[in-house]
Amino acid sequence: MFLIRDHQETRLREGARNAFLERVEQHIVKAHPECVADLDPAHLRQFVERNWEAARGFGLTSERSLCGYLEIVCRLGDDFASKHSWAETILKGADYEDRKLTRLREKLNSVPATNGAATAHSQ
């Protein structure tokens, strides 16, 4: 029987977290290069982590959901939920995460895009 010590578990979690964030970063760079073109790797990581926290606050926890959330950020800008009441209503609703993203994407078809380019100083 193997015993995983606390420090080993922490390293395993960190490795899984970093792999997750790297996949999300690769997705957003490939899918929306214009959104993150001005970000160096450290600021790209900050952009993804900041929006991961925001997405988790709305119950979006999967890799797929985070990628979808970031795509909307790239279209509407950071903190889009507070700037668009329809988005906040959808995100705070009781729907499961895939349904929330579907509803957001449906609504996006009727909303003009704004400059959603990520910046190193966006909060």
Question: Which key terms come to mind for this protein?
Answer:
7 helices, mainly alpha, single chain, 123 residues
In short:
By secondary structure, the protein is mostly helical. 69% of the residues lie in helices and 0% in strands.
Descriptive notes:
- The protein has 123 residues and is an all-alpha fold.
- The protein has one domain.
- Helices cover 69% and strands 0% of the residues.
- The chain has helices at residues 6-31, 33-36, 41-57, 63-76, 80-83, 85-92, 97-108.
- 27% of the residues are buried.
- The model has no long low-confidence stretch (mean pLDDT 89).
How far apart are the first and last residues' alpha carbons, in Å? 46 Å
Shape: globular
Number of domains: 1
User: Per DSSP, what share of the residues sits in E-state strands of 2 or more residues?
Assistant: under 5%
Biggest sheet record: none
Radius of gyration: 16 Å
Helical content, roughly? 55-70%
Task: Name the average pLDDT.
Answer: 89
* Class by SSE composition: mainly alpha
* Beta strand count: 0
The parts where pLDDT drops under 50 for at least 5 residues are none
- Helix count equals 7
Element-level helix/strand string:
HHHHHHH
